[in-house]
Structure formats: C-alpha cells, structure tokens
Design brief:
The chain is α/β, with parallel strands linked by helices. It has 3 domains: 110 residues, Cobalt-precorrin-4 Transmethylase, domain 1 (3-Layer(aba) Sandwich), CATH 3.40.1010; 105 residues, Tetrapyrrole methylase, C-terminal domain (Methyltransferase, Cobalt-precorrin-4 Transmethylase, Domain 2, 2-Layer Sandwich); 40 residues, no CATH class. It is 41% helix and 18% strand. The strands form 2 sheets. A 5-stranded parallel sheet has the order 3-2-4-1-5, sandwiched between helices. Strands 6-7-10-8-9 form a 5-stranded mixed sheet, sandwiched between helices. Helix 2 links the parallel strand 2 and strand 3. The structure holds S-adenosylmethionine. S-adenosylmethionine binds next to helix 5, strand 7, strand 8 and strand 10.
C-alpha cells in the first residue's frame, strides 16, 4: 500500500473459498481505506467480521455500476481512498470492476492492485494441461446460438482454454464440448481451496458420459486441451526431386531448381541436384 493512500482505488483480491488465502496486504488495505465498494455487501461483511474490521461499504454490482462508478470516482477525487472487492477472487475477472477501472483511468485516478487468488489461474495450474499459452473464455452464454458460435471460433485454438461454469449448465456444456471438439483432454477443477476440492482429469467424451446426469455440484472451472499442432507437410527426397524437375520443365536452371526445391522440402541442394542430373 502506498505511504499516502489518499485518492487511490485499490483492486483487492479475496479468497475463492479458503479464508486463509486472504493476503496480509489485502487485510491491511481493507483496514486502511476510507470505504469499500463491494459486489455484495453481505458477503463482504462476513469477511470483514472474520478479520475484525469495521468499514463503511457501498454496493457496486452489474446493475448499478454506471451510477455507482461515478459516485465512487467523485469521492476518490475528493481525497478518499476506496477498495473494490467482489464475492470471491479478483475483481474484473467475470466479476464487476472493469468499468470502474476504466472510469478511474478517464478521471486520472491512481489505481493499485492487491493481488489475490483467482479461479482461472488456480485451475490452470493444477489442470495437468499445457500452461505455456492459454486463453480465458469466461462463462459461455446461455443462449444456444451464441454459445455455439463462441465454441466454433475455438475449434482450431491450440492454446489451453479455460471456462467458468455453473453446475446446472454443466451437462449442456459437456455435450457441446464433445460435439464441437471431439475427444480431448479436459480437467474439471471443482471447489478449489475448499473442503471438497477435487481435480478431475478426464476427457470430453468420458466427462460427457459420466457427468451428464447433473451429479457434479459446486463451483467449477473447465480446462480444455488445445487443438493438436498442425504438422508441417513431410516431404521425401523423391518429392523434392519431382519438384525440382517440374521447375526445370518450366525453364529453371537445374542448380536453381535444386536450390528452390531444397528451400521448400528441407533436403540438401546437392542431394537433390545429384538425383536431378
Ligand atoms: N472473480 C472470480 C475469480 O477471480 O476467479 C470469478 C467469479 S465468477 C462470478 C464465479 C466462477 O468462478 C464460478 O462459477 C466458477 O466457475 C469459478 N470459481 C470461483 N471460485 C471457485 C472455486 N473455489 N473452485 C472452482 N471454481 C471457482
């Protein structure tokens, strides 16, 4: 936290289940700000009670964000400091906050992040899938058509894909995954950091067969393997020589044709040239 915390918006991460995951810095920030903008003040009140903190709160959620955002910015511009929090995890990640940061940027208000857990990164880390490159897809739409369109854009996606999911929609999603992507590796990361945490490393087909009955409950993240890498075409020496011959027939000199065919096929120029003549 800055020495002088006036006129700042703090974007504060809170636990995704296990209260011990609240960082000391997050606790200190919540204690020191003038007020807290919370997605659901009842949920945040429980956290504050756990920490023994008393602090004025203002609700900030999807349907009041425009109006409340202006009000929050006004108070910060007048010298107050504010922490924005959501029910769980990082604000702005499938949760309110994004608009508020934009408004702060427009007003030139300083923002500081106080990072905490987020289900997307936590699930990716334990997925057992490739973590080098990934995409976050958020929640799929409940509208059948836009859901389908969204998934179709991902058919050739090679990066690992991460989706948030609600348990009552899981059966439909697993069917759509199997229909769209065929059989691929899939990890279902359920109830992370909580008592019934479970990491199910399965495939789209097996998951569709096992969990379409709606038996899987709780909060979950779906981590889907990316599409296989498209292999570059593999050439034989005979392909390389045929290509060079074709170029010669079209008027190229044998050495130039061998050079060009070498570039395309990866064989050595001399090797192709020898066969060619
Ligand atoms: N802002 C939060 C974050 O940073 O992760 C996400 C909030 S979003 C409204 C809620 C979704 O996050 C859930 O439907 C689920 O997909 C995922 N999620 C949150 N907590 C989780 C947990 N403990 N285990 C598994 N998934 C979780």
């Amino acid at each position: 936290m800055s020495m002088d915390n006036k006129g700042i918006l703090y974007v504060v991460g809170t636990p995704i289940g296990n209260l011990s995951d609240l960082t000391p810095r997050a606790a200190k920030t919540l204690e020191q700000v003038d007020f807290i903008a919370a997605e659901d003040t009842r949920v945040t009140l429980k956290l504050l009670n756990h920490l023994g903190i008393k602090k004025p709160m203002m609700s900030y959620f999807e349907h009041n964000k425009q109006f409340r955002g202006e009000l929050i910015c006004k108070r910060i511009l007048e010298g107050e400091s504010c922490a924005v929090v959501t029910d769980a995890g990082m604000p702005c990640i499938s949760d309110p906050g994004e608009e508020l940061i934009k408004q702060c940027a427009e007003y030139g208000i300083k923002t500081e992040v106080v990072p905490g857990p987020s289900a997307v990164i936590s699930a990716l880390c334990v997925s057992g899938l490739y973590t080098g490159r990934f995409t976050f897809e958020g929640f799929l739409s409940v509208n059948k058509k836009s859901r389908r369109e969204h998934l179709l854009t991902l058919v050739n996606e090679q990066r690992t894909m991460i989706f948030y999911e609600a348990p009552h929609k899981l059966a439909n999603t697993l069917k759509d995954f199997y229909d769209t992507f065929g059989d691929r590796r899939l990890t279902i990361a359920r109830e992370l950091t909580k008592l019934h945490e479970e990491i199910i490393r399965t495939t789209t087909r097996e998951a569709f067969e096992r969990f379409s009955d709606g038996s899987l409950k709780g909060e979950m993240v779906l981590v889907l393997e990316g599409a296989p890498e498209v292999k570059e075409e593999e050439y034989t020496l005979s392909d390389a020589v045929s290509l060079a011959m074709k170029l010669v027939e079209e008027g190229a000199k044998a050495s130039d044709a061998a050079k060009e065919a070498a570039k395309v096929t990866g064989f050595k120029k001399n090797e192709i040239y020898r066969e060619l003549i």
